[in-house]
Specification:
With about 210 residues, the chain is of the alpha+beta class. It is built from 7 helices and 9 strands. Strands 1, 2, 4, 5, 6, 7 and 8 form a 7-stranded mixed sheet that branches. Helix 4 runs antiparallel to helix 6 and helix 5 crosses helix 6. The protein is elongated and about 65 Å long.
């Protein structure tokens, strides 16, 4: 098995480039971690889709990754690197073999690992696709996190039956009145998820009421 030593990883549910790492993120200082070369097709799937790896592979990587702690090291159960020879990512699996978190790498470490992968044979991964590749979008990590926060605030208004605020938001967004609360809620959620022009109106609304 091929190993990479002394790198930094930042596991998140969604893939973020290293320049979107936040200071409060838990950055792992990895002592050693297995590296596997993938085909371009598999690499794209692992980076953007949801898959489940077979048990044979889980057994192969179990406890093979080590991270530094203050005075010693500890093992990570199902963590490894994959590279297509152009870029590399870290993957974390649960005990069932499903990808739960991904990590980009610092640019110099990414380049070095990709070069090393070019000397390896492509690993024949066996896996099951659980969900298709996510559509590409150009939202930043900050924008994605704000969308999540706004959706939570809309849910709170709806669950707490704050109908006046929801009706006001609907009027602001669509310039017409509506009394069907379920329709109002669903339409506002759609505007947030699709990041339409109305998103800024909804964002500003919660910003204003949050200041009062």
């Amino acid at each position: 098995m091929n190993y990479i030593y002394d790198i930094l990883l930042n596991f998140q549910k969604d893939f973020y480039d290293f320049f979107e790492w936040n200071p409060e993120d838990e950055i792992l200082h990895i002592r050693k971690i297995p590296l596997f070369k993938t085909s371009n097709r598999d690499f794209i799937m692992f980076k953007n889709g949801t898959v489940r790896f077979e048990n044979d592979f889980l057994n192969r990587i179990y406890n093979r990754t080590e991270k530094f702690k203050k005075i010693n090291t500890s093992v990570l159960n199902y963590v490894f690197l994959v590279s297509n020879g152009k870029e590399a990512i870290g993957l974390k699996l649960n005990k069932n073999g499903v990808i739960t978190h991904r990590s980009s790498l610092l640019i110099d470490e990414d380049d070095e690992i990709a070069d090393m992968a070019n000397d390896l044979k492509v690993w024949d991964f066996e896996y099951t696709i659980l969900s298709p590749i996510k559509e590409e979008n150009f939202q930043t990590r900050f924008e994605k996190e704000n969308i999540h926060i706004i959706l939570q605030k809309l849910n709170n208004l709806y669950n707490n039956k704050e109908t006046d605020k929801l009706k006001f938001l609907y009027l602001e967004c669509f310039s017409k009145k509506e009394n069907d609360m379920e329709k109002i809620f669903n339409m506002l959620r759609r505007e947030v998820l699709k990041y339409t022009d109305n998103y800024s109106k909804i964002f500003d609304f919660f910003k204003i009421i949050g200041q009062k």
